[in-house]
């Protein structure tokens, strides 16, 4: 990994990126965040049912070697609270970890909690031998921090960017945004969409073409989002080496051609502020619709609910279910 390129005054990566891209990296990043940010720490404790107390009394430890195995994160508070956090990513299911560390909890503690932090929404809750087993998803964590209160903190912002890259979270399904600027249309034709800094990781992108005649205005295509990078215009080129990772184990027949298109897309200049952060979405080949999808018209109250109307707000995402309701005919591949 190249941390700084020539002709650049900063690194294209944040400090969490150097940890790697596996569950150990994510658990360490999360442990560090709650170790140095009291607000994030108590927000997490709230999720596991612990009220706010004296932050100075807590100890946070990672990768503790125990007889039953190595725990990801342990949180203790003067023999009153003992929390063991086990982290999983991708399709990793929690099985033996539900009982693996039962004998490792401090019996003198009043509160013993095993928190299973996974990518899979699992509402299982159990209590055995005075040990509460609570399952949270990483999306629960990210949603708690993805608001104005926390985003004013640079450390939180960097953690969210890192976690979204690792997890590729998919609860936001289809991003819809206006697209009318000619230069940005050129960029989109290179399978890249660029906008001001956004958070979240939607699965698909559907541009709403605004600068067209009435017959072609609207959503005419849908593209899968393969990768997302937030960077300054003069530094986005430093991320080219990351393009390969966007494909994971999926081998597309036009992979090389797509990467070359992306390189052309990020090279397009459009009166940008070189010191401003932009979010770049790297897209797979689009699927086209026979007829463009339009915004809800009229002026009645409630129009555009679960859809779009008038000016499309920043980071407008809709579900597949709501999107499909607006397709009068089957999609035809381009």
Q: Roughly how many Å is the radius of gyration?
A: 23 Å
Quaternary class: single chain
Largest sheet: 8 strands, mixed
Q: Tell me the helix content.
A: 10-25%
From the N-terminal CA to the C-terminal CA, the straight-line distance is 37 Å
Classified by CATH, the class of the largest domain is Mainly Beta
The poorly predicted ranges are 330-334
Q: Could you spell the SSE succession in H and E letters?
A: HHEEEHEEEHHHEHEEEHEEEHE
CATH third-level topology of the largest domain = Archaeosine Trna-guanine Transglycosylase, Chain: A, domain 4
Number-wise, the strands total 14
Name the structural class: alpha+beta
CATH architecture of the largest domain: Roll
The fraction of residues assigned to DSSP E strands is 25-35%
- How many alpha or pi helices? 9
Global morphology = globular
Kindly give the count of domains.
2
Overall pLDDT:
85
